[in-house]
Structure prediction request, 712 residues.
Amino acid sequence: MMSSSTVSHFLLLSLLSVTQADLYLHSPPGSNNRNRERNDNRNNANRLFDSQNNGKGGYPWRGDPRLNTQDGLTYYVGSDLRIEWTVQHGCGANPNVHCELVIQVACDSHMPNLRDGYPQSTNCFNSDNTQNQAGRGNVDCSDTTQFLARKWTTNTNDGTNTIPENRNTAFYEANLNTADGRQGAEYGMHEDNTFYQTCKNTARNKRLYTSDQKLQGNTQRFTRQNPNGGRRGLECPEERDYYPWWQPSPFEDVAVLVSNLTYCQSDLYQKESQNVKSRFYCACVLSEVNNNNPCPITEAACAAKGYTWTERAAWGVDPPECLLHPMSRDNHLGNAIHMKNDGSEEVEAQPETAHYNWKIPAHLAGQQCVLRLRYNMSTYDYDSHSFVEPNTASVGYDSSFNCPFVTAADCGNADPDCEATQGGVVPACYTKLTSASVPLQNRPYINLFEQSVANNQGFKLGLAINTHQTGRTFQDRSYVFNIANAPSNAAGKTIHNLGLRGRRGNIVQAYPAVEYDFVPSLLEVTEGDFVHIQFHGSDFNAAKNANNGEGWKYSDRTNMVQMDSRTLNYPQFHSKNTLFPDLAEAKKWAWVGQEETVQTCLDINYYDNGDNQRNDINNCGKLNRMKNRYPQNPQDGLVQMNNEPGEYYYMSTRNNNFSNRAMKGQITVGKSGDDPDALAEGETMGAVFAGFFGVGAAGSIIFTVAKWKALL
Prediction:
């Protein structure tokens, strides 16, 4: 535990990236700041968080659009949930980059009132053939004869406007018994207003490396990546850009994936995680602090202002795993080579997306949660990772390397970086390339051969190095989901979650999201295990008709029928069913609840007559009457695999287009008593950023790794 009388800090690692490196969460689906806009590109990049990703990425909100609350999936305690993602500029044992990826979770207990943003009108509108609610009349939300969506009352830009600051408590708590609360419920919120106001009025760490970026303020809103202090949702830019953060964060660490396993050997990520280590902060009165008089981040300064230096207890849960990230190529959003932690390559039945198998922990039961993934990639041009190596004491890059440096004579202009010159620390600023140094300024031009430019003997080469982007943090987050204790018939049993990923459209239209598939598409279980099957569909895709998406043009829907072989494209006739325990169960996953309205289903003898029938709400053959979340009772999705050992194949009748999508899967049932490690080995991949800063730490630019050192 950090002493309350002595503030220790870390020497920080500079993680210096040079280009954009997007991160996309595919399962559970990442929002990339989307909500319910029916567009190829998101409406608002600042809705909930700073993703730094391309606006075309992400998945639309899934669930019943008539509801005024969340409609997320439920995962059971102890079950295995596969988290899948892609990163654009490589990771793992790729010699071109350093990288770290951190997986975190936040739930009600740490992030109260979190939500996606839900419409609160008492009326719905017919959304059958319209982009949004503009100009649409009111329809009773109980009407089942039309495709309906509930209307927004305040956040009328499809629920994508950024939540406002400084509203009352009812607004942020989304108390639906009050007018303010109903307004607040329409806005997505992860971090709350108190967290953001604390960030906005607390001193930033001025020992951090900011290169030549001129930060426009003194508080945690302002970082090298966010020098102008822009707001995205209610997140804190300093908390977003550095990991582990030195002040209390609402996120709990799950795993850290790295490019070099020596970064795990010091146990730095585990020891400094807020899971196991408390945090300290100055308990300022927010009305008494501001950008020009910020709340201090050291104990001495806190006491000098008459405030209390306060300890926030650790979460008290297991530290995050530190594992090797799968190896992926630069400039590629696709499958990766999965590696064991001894550095050897996994033998896999097919290429796989980078993934981590998360076992849902018991302490999160009864809560709604969101997942957050953050990714940093950096070059080898700087001594950025030396002190995360075991048995090293290198400082790395801190504010003494900021460029251009600030002298005492310059401090009359209230430059927020002037403090970097105190105590004789003069920032270094290399303005040219030499045999011993590299330039640190933005978009440098270099005289590679030291030929005189003035005498026309040569010219300088320009480098595409943008210091606003070096050491850049990328992020994606899931929509809200639920965690519950397993029902009694599955308690203590192994539970595997089986779901889907993908977005409507062909591969070009969906990119950088992916097309439809089951997750995991290859699943290994043991006799007696449970598979928890849940399908989640959206009504808010950009319109795509036949050849680019089946059924209603805005929708996702999925079912599951058995096949004889994955090489085929027709399902088995019902008399050959061996995957499901009986015919009723097989029918349930084929018809996915539409039998309740079978009397309204279109009677199509051989094939439909085009887009009109494909978009008809009564086209049950295209699953248009399927509810957005199936089954409605999560417990009904549990299927115990008491099958004979062997391989079982299945497909979606709607999404298996053969030409550009093959939505097929396989479940392999092993004999009870087989070594479970033989089945599970290599399925868990982890992610980590760099290291922890204590308060007043000598800084690095983005995700950081660090070692303890006494306060300078």
